[in-house]
Amino acid sequence: MIESDLLAGRAGTAVGLNPDLLYSSAGMKASPKKKAATKPIGGGDDVANGMTERSWRILALTILIVGAVLRLYALELKPLHHDEGVNGFFLRRLANENIYHYDPANYHGPTLPYAARVSTELLGMNTVAVRLVPAVFGMGVLLVVLGMRRRLGDVGSLASAALLAVSPGAVFHSRYFIHEMLLVFFTLAAVSAATRYFEGRGDLWMILAALSLALMFATKETAIISLIVILLAALLSTVWGRLIVRDHEAGQLTAASLGGPERILAVAIASAILFAAVNVVLYSSFFSYWEGVSGALKTLSIWKSTGEQQHVHPWYSYLQWLLKEESPILIVAVAGTVFVFLRRHSWFLRFVALWAFGLFAAYSLVPYKTPWLTLNFLIPLALLAGWSIDAVCRNFGVNLAVAIAAIALIAATYQAVVLNYFRYDDESIPYVYAPTHREFLEMVSEIESISQRAGTGTRTEVAVMYDSYWPLPWYLQAYQNVSYFGTPTPTQTAMVVGSADQDTALQPFLTDRYVKVRQYKQRNGLESVLWVRRDVLDRPLNCP
């Protein structure tokens, strides 16, 4: 999808569009004098702002390396979240029994488990393997952004990708085994491909847009929100361009520029068939569970109720969260948006602004709010912020642009490192939402240590007596004799895991046969407790 812009660096003229619009990242018509002095973006060794093609590629590679290090280093450091543990359960069933049944009442689409099945086949069923999936798609976002060089400009594409490479939220959710990073990747890919198609760059781009759109809907039901906002943003940007600023680009798209009505119809039919086929294949679990297809059609009504009852936060929550964690992107993007609508700029820039703030408004109006949903509008906000830095470079000089970019990147990198490697279970940070505390991994390590000392290893019998045990099943997946009761139950197992508020209820079952090893913070308001049968211990422990 990005090869023609990112690797070849060529700047062909889009069929049906004003070629002058391709001469500047601002999408503004260049004067004849400026055209003679400045080559089209990517169209030669020397490009605008004095940046050579070689320099652009070196900087792009540097951004990708930094983004990869932040996303891949110590993926197992943070304990799995409750939701990651549940996703792991469905993945294990898919891997072990070749069964995946989509349930619209509780869980999201099938792309995540099927993608994770590939990574776990290669690396084993472990935390690094499953989190590699969102990390790879997070890197994919950076690649697609760099591939938007024609529209954002040399500096703009680099700045947008750099801001996302070190964004605290983009990094955090690239290390989080949930669906959101896949959703925003497919959304961005669909926008990028559709833009190329309407530039007249070939029917294949619409086919790729349809494929990306299909995978959006096969990832998460909230894809419908993104699609509606994107379509409205495209319409409003076109209307604005034709009726208010009367720019050339908004009026140049014609049926002839896309190959004529018959060809457009053929591409539309092929795209619709592809969209339907991909969703049917995935939701039916490759034709083995047809209830998944009907479930996909019911999901919107089910999740409408969920959106009004769960994870309810005030309408201004996303603004608060962005100001606290993503202020460099937000502030620069807002400034750029004002400039876009005050000056005569391209259809694409208006579209991105309406896409970003349209999604922001839509998600703010819905009572249901979770931090990972910010990714949906953080991506287009970063595109605006990157273009804004490019505009500063062109209009006010390189030094000011570098200063703005440096301040934004240093602040974001600091926050990203602190969040992802030191305070990943600190709930005072908005992105850290109902986290599993690091002490939980200490309990897992203690269970493993005692099992080894007892000589029973993964054959050790463990009884889990409370119902909020996720993600414990993921960490004990190798243990063959683990029972999950949910409530205090008589047992003779070597170890018992319960919660602190069950102490009184557990005493009649445990009596003096068990030793309370320690209490561990699992998450806010939940303390896990490990009990071990006395005869299992081969040496005294310091017990509270």
Indicate the percent of residues in helices.
Answer: 55-70%
Overall pLDDT, averaged? 87
User: Could you tell me how far the N terminus lies from the C terminus, measured between alpha carbons in angstroms?
Assistant: 60 Å
Low-confidence stretches: 1-49
Element-by-element helix/strand order: HHHHHHHHHHHHHHHHHHHHHEHEEHEE
Main-sheet strand order equals 2-1-3-5-4
Shape by Cα distribution:
globular
Report the sheet with the most strands, covering strand number, pairing sense and barrel closure.
5 strands, mixed
Structural class, by secondary structure, is: mainly alpha
How would you describe the overall organization of this protein?
With 544 residues, the protein is mainly alpha-helical. It has 23 helices and five strands. It has a five-stranded mixed β-sheet, with helices on both faces. α6 crosses α9 and α17 crosses α19.
Short structural summary:
With 544 residues, the chain is mainly alpha-helical.
Features:
mainly alpha; 60% helix; 6% strand; disordered N terminus; 544 residues; single chain; 23 helices
